Each structure stands twice: as structure tokens, then as C-alpha cells.
Amino acid sequence: MSHYTDPFRGEFDSLEEFADRVSDVLKCPVTIEDANHRLIAYSAHDDYTDPARTATIISRRVPEKVINSLWKQGAIPALLKSREPVRVPPIHDVGLGSRVAVSIWKNDEVIGFIWVLETNRTLSPEEMEWLKLAAKAAKNKVLQLYMRKNKKEERVQELFWKLLTGHIAREDDIRAHLAAMQIPTAPQFAVVVFRFAADLIAEMERQISYLLQTTQQLPLLLYTTDGRDVILLAAPKTDQPLKELNAFIESFAAKMKERFHIHDVQCGFGGVYGAYRLIEKSYREALAVLALKEKLGDEIKSVYGYAQLGIYQFFDFLLEQKRQGEWTNPALTKLQSYDQKHHSDLVKTFETFFDHNENAQETADVLNVHPNTLAYRLKRIADIAELDLNDMNQKIKLYIDIKLAKYEARG
């Protein structure tokens, strides 16, 4: 297409002015978003809109349910691959009318999108070409925003690392730094760490950042990466923060798998606190969860929070005591000797019984034995270990020592 047919030549003072120009040319409402679906400009004085566009303008970002629908329907995957306009049929469930969208590219990276809401008309092939020209014309303006945002993010990440490593100790100083960077505070927070199978490459970082920026499940105040770790400061909104954080983690892992085919993501989060000087503590606790997951595997597969570790919180301390000779359990020693001599499974039987809350039927099913066989084994355990199976303290001590021995064996 020759230059004289380009309706977007010339200078525009702002992206708002540019959005109005695109709207005038295409005779449709227009919105311009950054790569994470945050609204950066929209055309004014539109006679017609739809609920999805209204919600986007009000909250300055595309609602998460709309983003999810656009992923499932295939529009966003197409926009991340193609420089051609993509036609998006209506998605009535989320209030989305018929649209055409085009990506704004910087080299091989998408830095934004132009969305055109078709109002009782369909863009002609010529208008589709104009939309491609609009995407090229918008690049420099969007790029300026992109560069400013990246510079701010570098300063914010530097501050986050200072907090994660305890370099700012006083609560007042921390809050002053956060205010200066215009980072909102929250009454409670936890550090969340996602660990990937290998060091993050640029493309993966973009995909992860996209997911984190578009989630509206719970506020994420700060975010950085370290090798194969993604580290977040998350701010649960309810009085059930552990439940909220668990739901967020499971949703994030599912989306990484569905959208980007990234599997094998481990996660841990530290304690939930209200004082920002405890960010370092929460971070150390999140790393402790990941270290335990690496050693214990399936045993704590569905545990993410430090507060949910139960007895495992104390294992490093107990192991230290054990190695100094201050922690022994004759009952376990006797059972281990008996198992070795008779090729039996009494230690495993007791552990499984306790793993299943002393439910005899469940334990028998897992061990693939008859309930009578289980009852006989439990009696043998009581006799050999000189253990009172009615004394909870004795049983808990043996259970902890069995788990601790496994933990120690895994190094």
C-alpha cells in the first residue's frame, strides 16, 4: 500500500489522540492496550460499546474472565504469533461483542494491541489493511511507555531484593521506600516462590510476567526472578489467606501448563505477615518449603505453605539434635532390626497407619492386606517396640522419627 493512502501519517500528541484518529478512520470504538492487557488509551464519544469494553475502561485493565475466554477461544494465541489482524467473534458469556484486533510489535516481541469493536458493521479488507498501518504507527508511542515502565521496574526490583535480603530493617523506612515507588501496601502479605525445572529464558520470563500481570485473583505487590525461581510478594485479601494462596498457586500452575505447555513447576510460600520487615523471614520460609519438597517428594506434594508443613517445620533442627546424639528412639531401632531380620514391613505399616489418620480400612487398602492382617501387625509393633498404641505422645514420637529417618536418608 503506498504512503499517500496511509491515514495515520503525521505526529500525534498522545495515544488518546491516536485512538480517536483510528476510531474516526474505521468508524468503530477503539481501545489500545499494553502487552499485559492494561488499558493505555481509548477513543472518546462512542455511541456504542459492550460490557467488556465498559469494564476495561472503568478498571483500566481487561477483566481476567475476558482474558481467559480470549485464550480459550484462540484469539490471544493468534495475536501473539501473527502481525495480521485477527477477527474475534462474540463471546456473550463475558459481554464481548464482535471485534477485530491487531498486535503492536517491537522486533519479535508484542508490546501492545489495538482492539476495534465492530458496531453493526464488518471491517472491509481495505480497513483491515488500515488497521495494520495503525499498529505500525502506534509502535513508537507504545514503545516510549514500555521503556519508561521497564526503567521503573528495574528500580522496583532492586528495592524488592533489598527487602528479601533484609537490607532495610526499619518498618518506617520500608514503607517510605514503597510509597516513593508508588507501590501499594496491604494489611497482610506472603512471599511466594515458583521454581521451574531450568533457568528462565527471556521467552519464559515474558510468559510468566504476562500471567502475573493479568491475574486479578489476588494482588501481587512485587515480583522478581532469580535463576529458575520467580519470587512474588502476594497480598491475600481475606481472613483465610492460606486457602487464597493455595488457590492462586494451583490456578497459576494450571495456566502455565494450558497456555504455554510449561510443566513441572514447584511452589512454596512463607508465613503470612503484616510487618514489611518480615519479608525476609517469609522468603526464607518459602525456600525452606521448596527444599523440603525436593527431599520428600510426593509426601508433601500438595503442601505449599510454611504454616501447613506441620512437623516438617522442625526437621532440620531435630536432625541437628539427632546428629549430636541427643535424639534417639529405641522403639524405632527395635522395629528396624526386626524388619531387617525377618524381611517384614512393620515400620512402613506404622507410618502408613498414621499417614491415614489411624483409619484401619484405608491403611489395609493402601498396603493391600486384610484388616485382620493389619490388626496383627499393629499388635506385633506394640509388642516389639514396647509401644502403648493408646498413648498419642508415644505414637507421635515414633511417627516423627520414622519421617526424620527418611528425611535424613535423602540427604
Structure report:
- Helix content is 51%, strand content 13%.
- The protein is α+β, with helices and mostly antiparallel strands and 411 residues long.
- It folds into 3 domains: 128 residues, Beta-Lactamase, CATH 3.30.450.40; 143 residues, 2-Layer Sandwich (Alpha-Beta Plaits); 94 residues.
- Strands 2-1-5-4-3 form a 5-stranded antiparallel β-sheet, sandwiched between helices.
- The mean pLDDT is 91.
- Pfam families: GGDEF_2, HTH_30.
Radius of gyration in whole Å, from Cα?
A: 29 Å
Q: Which structural class best describes the helix and strand composition? A: alpha+beta
Shape: elongated
Give the percentage of residues in beta strands.
Answer: 5-15%
Mean pLDDT: 91
Pfam families: GGDEF_2, HTH_30
Domain PucR C-terminal helix-turn-helix: 346-403
Organism: Geobacillus zalihae
Protein name: PucR family transcriptional regulator
Which key phrases capture this entry?
411 residues, alpha+beta, Beta-Lactamase, Alpha-Beta Plaits, 3 domains, five-stranded antiparallel sheet, 9 strands, elongated, PucR_C-HTH_dom
Summarize, please.
This protein is 51% helix and 13% strand. The chain is an alpha+beta fold and 411 residues long. It folds into three domains: 15-142, GAF domain (Beta-Lactamase), CATH 3.30.450; 166-308, 2-Layer Sandwich (Alpha-Beta Plaits); 317-410.
